[in-house]
């Protein structure tokens, strides 16, 4: 049984009114896929392809027009936001706009605990300190105002906020791809380490195919709201079946990859296991 099962998920938006009625368009059109435990699914596509709308429905931020989302074989209802928040959390793209600038880190991390648990203040503080440690921040960070942190530190706080309720799935909406290379590598390694330690499944939305090649088990390619390809990074990046996927790969890597592009990754991985 998959951890997450998405069936024919559709989101229809109404456009401007005209003489012939109100136009409608499907931002997401009958998308289906599964996500297993401890796996990473990446969603790629051009801007406006429906990627962010899809994950916002999965996270419960917006309701689907039709289709089903099942978590552990139980259908998730849009109205049951509190229950969903314990299992599926989201890290947003822009860390600067993701937080109330008047709050300190302790207050930011306490908010989901106060809403979703009946823990005492002492229990919540212990969980906050533990979670900050998981993302490489010291407990005394709780008293710092979020606006005084670097972008890298803010992303670590965003990850801590996602982790604090011990979810099984974390959605990362391009939160790594826009950072500079050294910071991106640090956060990438952190997310992979947390996946191994905690058994988290990730849904990663982004344009950085280099990151996706490294972290993803499977990839969905979206175009105009539809899922047009689905497969492993190796299959999609060496043998794309659609023009959209081909252009995405060539635009990022400069060419369609061949099998040798995975040899170095494999040798590095084996070296770490010794």
How many β-strand runs?
10
CATH topology of the domain at 1-74 and 200-274: Rossmann fold
CATH class descriptor of the domain at 1-74 and 200-274:
Alpha Beta
Provide the low-confidence segments as ranges. 268-274
Shape: globular
- Radius of gyration of CA atoms, rounded to a whole number: 20 Å
Structural class by sheet pairing and helices: alpha/beta
Number of helices: 10
Largest sheet: 6 strands, mixed
Question: Can you lay out the helices and strands and say which pair or pack?
Answer:
Layout: E1 4-18, E2 21-35, E3 40-45, H1 51-59, E4 66-71, E5 74-75, H2 81-85, E6 88-91, H3 105-116, H4 121-134, H5 151-163, E7 169-173, H6 181-198, E8 201-205, H7 209-215, E9 218-223, E10 226-231, H8 233-238, H9 243-253, H10 263-273
Overall description:
With 274 residues, this protein is α/β, with parallel strands linked by helices. It has a domain at 1-74 and 200-274: P-loop containing nucleotide triphosphate hydrolases (Rossmann fold, 3-Layer(aba) Sandwich). It is 39% helix and 26% strand. The chain has helices at residues 51-59, 81-85, 105-116, 121-134, 151-163, 181-198, 209-215, 233-238, 243-253, 263-273; strands spanning 4-18, 21-35, 40-45, 66-71, 74-75, 88-91, 169-173, 201-205, 218-223, 226-231. The strands form two sheets. A six-stranded mixed β-sheet has the order 6-7-8-3-9-10, sandwiched between helices. It has a four-stranded antiparallel β-sheet with strand order 2-1-4-5. α4 (121-134) packs across α5. It is globular, with a radius of gyration of 20 Å.
């Amino acid at each position: 049984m998959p951890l997450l099962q998405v069936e024919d998920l559709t989101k229809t938006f109404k456009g401007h009114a005209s003489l012939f009625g109100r136009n409608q368009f499907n931002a997401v059109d009958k998308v289906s896929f599964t996500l297993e435990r401890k796996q990473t699914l990446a969603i790629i596509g051009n801007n406006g392809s429906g990627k962010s709308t899809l994950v916002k429905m999965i996270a419960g931020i917006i309701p689907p027009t039709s289709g089903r989302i099942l978590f552990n074989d139980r259908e998730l209802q849009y109205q049951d936001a509190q229950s969903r928040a314990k299992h599926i959390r989201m890290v947003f793209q822009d860390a600067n706009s993701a937080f109330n600038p008047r709050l300190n880190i302790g207050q930011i991390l306490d908010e989901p605990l106060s809403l979703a648990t009946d823990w005492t203040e002492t229990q919540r503080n212990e969980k906050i300190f533990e979670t900050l440690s998981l993302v490489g921040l010291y407990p005394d960070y709780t008293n710092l105002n979020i606006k005084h942190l670097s972008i890298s530190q803010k992303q670590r706080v965003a990850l801590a906020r996602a982790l604090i309720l011990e979810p099984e799935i974390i959605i990362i909406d391009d939160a790594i791809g826009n950072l500079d290379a050294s910071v991106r590598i640090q956060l990438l390694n952190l997310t992979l380490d947390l996946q191994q330690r905690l058994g988290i499944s990730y849904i990663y939305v982004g344009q950085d195919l280099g990151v996706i090649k490294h972290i993803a088990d499977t990839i969905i390619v979206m175009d105009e709201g539809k899922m047009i390809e689905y497969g492993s990074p190796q299959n999609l990046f060496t043998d794309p079946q659609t023009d959209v996927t081909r252009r995405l790969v060539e635009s990022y890597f400069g060419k369609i990859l061949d099998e040798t592009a995975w040899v170095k990754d494999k040798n590095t991985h084996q070296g770490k296991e010794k």
